[in-house]
Amino acid sequence: MRIVELRQYTLRPGARETLVELFEREFVAGQQDAGITVGGRFRDLDDPDRFVWLRAFPDMAHRRRALEAFYTGPVWQEHRDAANATMIDSDDVLLLRGPGFTPAPGVREVLATVCHPADAADFAGYAARHLGPGHALHRTEHAENDFPRLPVRTSEDVRVWFGPAEPTPWPTRHLRLEPVRP
Prior knowledge:
The protein is of the alpha+beta class and 182 residues long. It has a single domain (2-179), classed as Alpha-Beta Plaits (2-Layer Sandwich). It is built from 4 helices and 8 strands; from the N terminus they run βαββααββαβββ. It has helices spanning 16-33, 60-72, 74-85, 120-130, and strands at 2-11, 37-44, 50-57, 87-98, 110-115, 138-140, 159-162, 172-179. The chain has an 8-stranded antiparallel barrel. Helix 1 runs antiparallel to helix 3 (74-85). The longest helix has 18 residues, at 16-33. The two termini are 25 Å apart.
C-alpha cells in the first residue's frame, strides 16, 4: 500500500482544458522526475470546472522529499503562475493509503465512490462482501501532513474506491470521471 493523494481542483469557468493541456505537457513528467507516481487524471463529468487526479508515494517521508523537489524545481517554478491562474481552489485533497489508481487504456468513464463509514469494523465486513481487488480500495491516512504548504483534509475518515457503485448504509459521494487519456 502506498500514500495516495486524491486531488479535486475547482477551476475558473472554462479553464479546465487549459490546465489539462499544461498538466499533461509539463506536470506529469516533472512530477515523475521528482519521484512522484502520477495516477489517473480526470475531467469531472458532472462539473465542467473540476479536474480530479491522483498521485502516489511509497511512504510519508518519500512524499515530503518528492513534493519539496517538485515544488522548488524548475518545472513548477516555470509553469506555476499559468497553472494557478486556472484554479479557484486546489485544497480539496484527501490523503489516503491504498494501491493508487490509473484506468485501463480505452476506458471512457470511471466511477469513484467516497464513503464516510461510521465504523471501520462494519466497513471491513461490507468491503469483504461487496468490493473486490478491482475496486482499488483506499482509506484515510491519518499521518500528519508533513508538507503543510499543500493542505489536506484531515477531519474526515473515508474509504474511496473505483468501479461500480455499490449501495452502502453510509453517506457516499460518487464522482463520474472521464480519463484525460482514454
